[in-house]
Amino acid sequence: MRLRRGLLAASTGLLLAVTGCSSFTDASSSADSSSSSAPTTTPAEPEAAPVTWTDCDAEITELIAGTPGSERDLAFECGRTEVPIDHDEADGATLPLFLIRAKLAGQTDRIGSLLVNPGGPGASGADAALSLALSMPEDVLRRFDLVGFDPRGVGLSTPVECVPADLKDRLVAAEPRPTTQEQMDEVLGLTDEVAEGCAEEYGDALGTFNTVDTARDMDLLRESLGDEQLSFLGYSYGTTLGSTYAELFPENVRAMVLDAAVDPDADRQADAEAQAAGLEAGFDAFAANCTSLVSGCPIGGDPRRFVQDLMGAASAAPIASSTPGETRTATPGVILTAVAAALYDTSSWPRLSQSLAAASTGDAAGLFSLADAYNGRLDNGTYTNQLDANITINCADTPEDQTYSEEQVLQLAQDWNQRHPLFGAGAASSLYTCGVWEAARTPLPERDAEGSAPILVVGNTGDPVTPLPGAEDLAGDLTAGTLLVWQGQGHTAYPKTDCVTAAVNAYLIDLTAPQDGLTCPA
């Protein structure tokens, strides 16, 4: 699961209270009354519905107050529009999508809208618009309205909600490195429980939440926003969504930046192992940085051994938290989730080392804070629907023949645990998830996007989640792909360094793509 975190996750709760949200069952029930007419031989193309914008500037300004970048002269609007549940039934039932639009005062020579997706699948594009409005170069914001939308099934766009909070707590707390039959039975039993609950809640509708239909939604949004062609910035899973759009609508691409690319050529097994290897390398980079500190590393001279010993101790006696009212105790699952969360961004490394050190003395509050932010757990014990949507969309995208039995998963877990001792077994166990998922599948297309304008693919040499070969493969597959490499650490590159920022800005604004293979220093 690729979930880009840290994009003002708390905002979802406020926006939900401000705007309200329709359930998928409300939308699908209306399909019964609108689908009685006989289908035509050739499905009609759906028409783009207008976006209804409301002024939510006061609420959002209050939300972001004190956040770096909040001093910018920005105005925010909240939007609603409708898209078909089934794009082959243009006159059928619809579902609402939620959008945020940010405008910087003093725009000149406006180009249009820049649509953004932060990854996941399951991360909120509305939250991403808030975060990026505070951090993107103003040169770009002077030329574009920044627009983020919650994809179907995500956030405030008919969210998929079928995994209860207590089950999510148990998933996080479960054994993160299952290598015995007993451990694997526990982990896969929880996976079965998730699949059964979601199938019971949604039935056949689960297959509706897939990347291909979201890409079709995006083209309707482009029309609704009044843009002849799409300008798009996608991170992590957003590179899958963007490249799918480019494959379906190549002539409608104006500019597309795909940062931290998911490998389009890797099968599920290769992708899972590559991510485990990437996280291991990311941990080694964290450890090297920590032990090089002049002030000393809070977790000693061997961070890997420290974490392994801490997990062993927590397995025997889970660690309490000093947070008032917190009744959970930190298991090895919580510890490793916190570690993985912090590897996404180097700015989280000091917090990770301090939290690990505190946990070794009996206080897991810092680890819970990292793990909860990663999983979308709010202070009141409820969750956003990031996990529900992540599983649902990933499995809807996965062909039924790419499934793995319990026996295969256990064997891979044992093998990968030797090669990737922190993250290998957990990555192997994730291969079981979509094999028991009861939903229609809409596999991703092969993506060369022939006929598209140039597409800029960005990759990091030290990306722990989507390693650089994925960006190389995507840029190579795209007929008009151009690769930009950052020799940096962490997940995603733009706008973290001057070299990358200058190249991406020139491309977005002037459509001047950098030389293919340009490498930017750390």
From TrEMBL:
Entry keyword Hydrolase: yes
Signal sequence extent: 1-27
Keyword Hydrolase: yes
Region (Disordered): 28-50
Domain AB hydrolase-1 residues, every copy: 114-494
Record's keyword terms, sorted: Hydrolase, Signal
Protein origin, superkingdom: Bacteria
Pfam families with a match to the protein in the record: Abhydrolase_1 (PF00561)
Alphabetized GO MF terms: hydrolase activity
Family as reported in the entry's similarity comment: Belongs to the peptidase S33 family.
Name of protein: Alpha/beta hydrolase
Organism from which the protein derives: Geodermatophilus normandii
Lineage: Bacteria, Bacillati, Actinomycetota, Actinomycetes, Geodermatophilales
